[in-house]
From TrEMBL:
Gene3D superfamilies referenced in this protein's UniProt entry, alphabetically: Ribonuclease Z/Hydroxyacylglutathione hydrolase-like
Extent of the signal sequence: none
The keyword Zinc is annotated on this UniProt entry: yes
Official protein name in the record: MBL fold metallo-hydrolase
Domain of life (superkingdom): Bacteria
Pfam family, one: Lactamase_B
Keyword DNA damage: no
InterPro entries from the UniProt entry: MBL_Glyoxalase_II, Metallo-B-lactamas, RibonucZ/Hydroxyglut_hydro
Cofactor requirements of the protein: Zn(2+)
Domain Metallo-beta-lactamase: 39-222
Annotated keywords: Hydrolase, Metal-binding, Zinc
Species the sequence originates in: Anaerovorax odorimutans
Length: 276
């Protein structure tokens, strides 16, 4: 049986992040909604005191409209958005936060380092539409928790993809059972040796924390990394006897992390080849 050892990332993967012609969403746990365009996705976590948005797709009105309409579609209220939490300071994650902030005034969260990175090193320097365009209210770091109603999100420093990248662990529920979900905030490894080394260290650190917390749900913020669109399509038509495809167990989460490690090894091989 064919199984991939690394996610497939191509030039199209990168250009697809700006394709706003298509959005999809699914309620993947009773309290967790995923919204995706072709390559990038965000999550909305429902608590007893309101909604927490994790990442915000791309800086454009279409992404905002898609998030709002998905929230309404599952019977929640966008007016209940209380927090906007960002994994890192790239435009495909800071996304349409400007519109969310203007409409609903949530508290915004990111690491101090990546707030500066977002400001000083925009992904597309020649494109003002991708520049930092809203304020961060609260700087978060390793060991912090964000609490809203019955939900607590644990924060971990996972630099490498960006200098101040973060990853999160939080509870989700299905039919009354609580599971711990982990969102690995960094996507593909960077191109220089120091950053790849840093990325690998972060991955080891996060996996250790995930094992301590009995994480059994693997989440990603890019669809190319975890067959995101296929998992969403499956969730939309999942029948009652079918398993939750995000629930991979502790062993599954370890294997999920291995895919990112393999991406790093590929990157290291490419770097080594430059010296041969
Ligand atoms: Zn990124």
């Amino acid at each position: 049986m064919k199984r991939l050892e690394t996610p497939i990332i191509t030039e199209e993967t990168i250009s697809g992040m700006e394709d706003m012609s298509f959005f999809t969403h699914a309620l993947i746990f009773d309290d967790l909604l995923i919204i995706a365009q072709k390559e990038t996705n965000c999550f909305v976590l429902k608590s007893t005191e309101g909604l927490i948005v994790l990442d915000a797709i791309w800086p454009c009105r279409e992404a905002f409209d898609a998030i709002v309409s998905a929230i309404r579609d599952v019977g929640w209220k966008p007016e209940d958005i209380k927090k906007l939490v960002l994994t890192h300071g790239h435009a495909d994650h800071t996304g349409c936060g400007k519109w969310i902030v203007e409409a609903y005034r949530p508290q915004t969260y990111l690491s101090r380092r990546d707030d500066r990175f977002w400001q000083e090193e925009p992904v597309k320097k020649e494109r003002p539409d991708t520049w930092k365009d809203y304020q961060i209210d609260v700087y978060i770091k390793e060991g912090d928790v964000m609490v809203l109603g019955d939900k607590t999100i644990w924060v971990y420093d996972t630099p490498g993809h960006t200098p101040g990248g973060l990853s999160f662990i939080f509870p989700v529920t299905e039919e009354g059972k609580v599971y711990q979900a982990a969102l690995w905030g960094g996507s593909n490894p960077p191109g220089d040796l120091a950053s790849v080394t840093c990325y690998l260290r972060s991955l080891d650190h996060f996996l250790k924390k995930a094992e301590e917390k009995n994480v059994s749900v693997a989440l990603s913020n890019h669809t190319a990394l975890d067959n995101g669109l296929e998992r969403i399509a499956y969730s939309q038509k999942r029948m009652s006897y079918m398993p939750n495809i995000y629930l991979v167990g502790q062993t599954g989460f370890r294997k999920y992390c291995q895919l990112f490690r393999n991406l790093c090894y590929e990157r290291l091989d490419a770097l080594a080849a430059e010296f041969l």
